């Protein structure tokens, strides 16, 4: 099934690459067509420019012709003037001379104007000539570049077609392989798999999830950055609450001079407790960061420490809710002060709205954090789509927090500037306001950084599927099992990668074998000798017990004889003859007065010995019983010994079978590890090839898109210049026509 899924993923990736290549090929074709059309349009524009240049040259010729006509007319007038001076000698000659001079002056002025206009027209014509020549050179260069680019695009299009054909061949090959393996896998599934355990959540929860090390490193990095931002946020909030408490004791009434209002007193007492609510936030997030290690599994279902952070955040949000009415009432008291102006009162109203908005944003964040901490208690409490929605809404809420902090900082800055203009303001109040503004600035900065950070990592947080057994949920017990399996795998790989000891030479091995065989033979002989010695020892023990009993009986008899001798000596000394008693007369008075029976203990039990004389039949029966007892004990011990020997032989055979199985398992493990290495090498090679091809395609597409953008920019600039030149030439032509 794993091979089928891998091939299916490869097939889908190749299909995506094929579709991308087809789209890129179409884009390249379209780009080539656009470049061709652009080159044609540029050629047409070049022709139009040449035509306009010819028109301008014709206009210049006409202007030069008119200038020549004017100069000829002036010369004729001068000649007529000379003739009139020589011919007219009349009295009215002075008036005519003055009239001629006036006309001459007017004509000279007109001539100067025309010369200036001609110079201006000549300068315009020269400038247009230079401009048009530069434009023509640029267009020619652009045309050459476009032709080169068109050729390169055609070559790239050919290469893309060749690559698409190769990809299609690979795709057909992988399709055939996937179809064959799919058929084989489906047949195996139908024959061997009784049911699909991923369809039922109860069975699917028994599957072991995978461990993604790259995801762990990314999660640890994100947690470290979040910890830094939260620490800066906590520091800013601590400063804000502390300086607010200090301001309450200064304004509107100074606590060092007179008593402040009960509302402000209670408000300052609550503000004094801010550290007990803010410090646990930092500590709990630090514990959460420490719990995210490289060898752990990070998902919403396994982040148990997130519950502590959620509780701390909820307590701080409740703290803000608790101090909000006192803060609003404190701002009302600021408005009711005698020196409070209308502008300052309006700023206080705005600050009240800002504080309500800030508290509401923290309430929303509390709800979102509680929702994110819920899967660590109940793994199936929230699906992946809901988690994505929560992350998205949380990102928007963080941006709202930044906006609220920004508005609060702006309005408080305006309020502080207004308070500085009051006549009764003190230096202590100004310093406190500056500290409050700096804490609000750091709060705004921290909120902005946190919102930007969350937005940048939203794809990682929202689109991350987490860990789970084939689409199911993950609980901490499964995470522990995953890490235990990972540790076992690492231990197993380290053991198989150990350098094996050097092998023994062949001759030394043969000598060791001879020594081993001789030692085994000597061991068998020694075992036989030990068995014989144990039998001898058992017989000697039996004899020892027998002779111990005999010695005890002899000692009893000796004591009895000693007593009889003592009694006889006593009778002899008293002079009374000894009395003889028969068995029929009753018990012997000596026996009756004899001491209590003696008891002897040994390893086999307790033997009772009476000091009275016994018959030979009783002694023989007692000895017979003792022998029978010892023989039964010996037979039991030998049976136990035989049973132990048979069990030892059985265990020895089982150990040999287990050793053979272990050797076979080691061989199969080595073959499987080799196959696994080959498979990993193939996977890495394919991934490298895919990444290189994807990177090359992306680079080519980016270069082509940049080139097309630059060409479009140059074309738009050239069109603008052409339009401006057209308008200028039209305006000059209209002026010339009007003149």
UniProtKB/TrEMBL annotation:
SMART domains: KLRAQ. It is found in: Early endosome. GO terms for molecular function: RNA binding. It comes from the Eukaryota. Residues 4-177, 523-550, 662-689 form a coiled coil. It holds the Pfam family KLRAQ. Residues 720-739 are annotated as: Disordered. One of its GO terms (cellular component) is early endosome. Keywords: Coiled coil, Endosome, RNA-binding. InterPro entries: PPP1R21 (IPR040024), PPP1R21_C (IPR049372), PPP1R21_N (IPR019343), PPP1R21_six_helix (IPR019348). This is Protein phosphatase 1 regulatory subunit 21. Residues 12-111 form the Protein phosphatase 1 regulatory subunit 21 N-terminal domain.
């Amino acid at each position: 099934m794993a091979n089928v899924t891998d091939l299916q993923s490869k097939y889908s990736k190749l299909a995506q690459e094929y579709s991308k290549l087809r789209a890129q090929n179409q884009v390249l074709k379209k780009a080539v067509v656009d470049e061709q059309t652009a080159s044609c349009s540029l050629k047409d524009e070049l022709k139009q420019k040449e035509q306009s240049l010819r028109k301008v040259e014709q206009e210049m010729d006409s202007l030069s012709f008119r200038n020549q006509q004017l100069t000829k007319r002036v010369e004729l007038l001068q000649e007529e003037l000379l003739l009139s001076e020589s011919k007219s000698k009349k009295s009215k000659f002075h008036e005519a001379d003055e009239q001629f001079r006036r006309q001459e002056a007017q004509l000279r002025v007109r001539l100067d104007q025309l010369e200036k206009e001609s110079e201006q027209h000549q300068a315009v014509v020269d400038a247009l000539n230079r401009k048009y020549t530069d434009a023509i050179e640029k267009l020619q260069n652009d045309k050459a570049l476009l032709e080169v680019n068109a050729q390169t695009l055609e070559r790239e299009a050919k290469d893309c077609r060749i690559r698409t054909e190769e990809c299609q061949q690979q795709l057909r090959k992988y399709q055939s392989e996937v179809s064959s393996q799919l058929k084989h896998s489906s047949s195996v599934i139908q024959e061997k798999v009784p049911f699909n355990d991923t369809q039922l959540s109860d069975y699917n929860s028994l599957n072991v999830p995978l461990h993604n090390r790259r995801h762990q490193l990314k999660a640890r990095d994100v947690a470290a950055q979040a910890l830094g931002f939260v620490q800066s946020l906590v520091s800013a909030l601590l400063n804000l609450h502390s300086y607010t408490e200090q301001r309450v004791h200064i304004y509107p009434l100074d606590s060092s001079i007179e008593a402040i209002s009960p509302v402000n007193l209670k408000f300052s007492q609550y503000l004094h407790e801010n550290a007990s609510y803010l410090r646990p936030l930092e500590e709990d997030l630090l514990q959460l960061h420490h719990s995210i290690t490289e060898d752990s599994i990070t998902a919403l279902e396994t982040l148990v420490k997130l519950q502590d952070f959620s509780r701390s955040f909820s307590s701080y949000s409740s703290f803000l809710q608790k101090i909000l009415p006192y803060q609003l009432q404190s701002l009302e008291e600021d408005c009711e002060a005698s020196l409070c102006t209308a502008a300052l009162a309006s700023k206080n109203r705005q600050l009240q709205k800002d504080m309500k908005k800030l508290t509401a944003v923290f309430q929303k964040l509390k709800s979102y954090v509680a929702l994110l901490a819920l899967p660590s208690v109940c793994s199936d409490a929230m699906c992946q789509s809901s988690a994505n929605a929560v992350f998205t809404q949380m990102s928007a809420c963080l941006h709202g927090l930044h906006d609220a902090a920004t508005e609060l900082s702006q309005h408080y800055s305006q309020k502080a500037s207004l308070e500085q203009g009051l006549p009764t303001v003190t230096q202590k109040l100004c310093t406190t306001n500056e500290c409050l503004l700096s804490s609000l600035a750091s709060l705004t900065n921290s909120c902005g950084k946190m919102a930007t950070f969350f937005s940048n990592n939203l794809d990682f947080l929202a689109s991350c599927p987490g860990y789970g057994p084939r689409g199911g949920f993950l609980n901490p017990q499964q995470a522990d099992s995953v890490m235990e399996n990972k540790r076992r795998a690492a231990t197993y790989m380290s053991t198989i990668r150990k350098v094996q000891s050097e092998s023994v030479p062949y001759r030394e091995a043969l000598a060791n074998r001879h020594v081993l065989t001789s030692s085994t033979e000597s061991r068998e002989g020694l075992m036989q000798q030990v068995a014989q010695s144990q039998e001898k020892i058992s017989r000697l023990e039996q004899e020892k017990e027998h002779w111990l009993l005999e010695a005890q009986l002899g000692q009893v008899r000796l004591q009895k004889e000693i007593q009889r001798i003592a009694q006889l000596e006593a009778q002899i000394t008293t002079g009374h003859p000894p009395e003889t008693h028969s068995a029929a007369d009753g018990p012997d008075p000596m026996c009756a007065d004899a001491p209590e029976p003696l008891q002897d203990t040994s390893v086999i039990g307790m033997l009772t010995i009476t000091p009275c004389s016994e018959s030979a039949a009783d002694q023989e029966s007692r000895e017979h019983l003792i022998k029978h007892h010892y023989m039964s004990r010996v037979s039991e011990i030998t049976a136990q010994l035989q049973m132990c020997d048979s069990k030892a032989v059985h265990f020895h055979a089982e150990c040999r079978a287990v050793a053979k199985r272990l050797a076979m398992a080691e061989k199969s493990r080595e073959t499987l590890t080799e196959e696994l290495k080959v498979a990993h090498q193939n996977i890495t090679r394919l991934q490298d090839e895919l990444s290189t091809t994807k990177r090359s395609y992306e680079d080519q597409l980016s270069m082509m898109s940049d080139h097309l953008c630059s060409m479009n920019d140059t074309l738009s600039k050239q069109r603008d210049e052409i339009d401006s030149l057209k308008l200028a030439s039209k305006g000059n032509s209209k002026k010339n026509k009007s003149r």
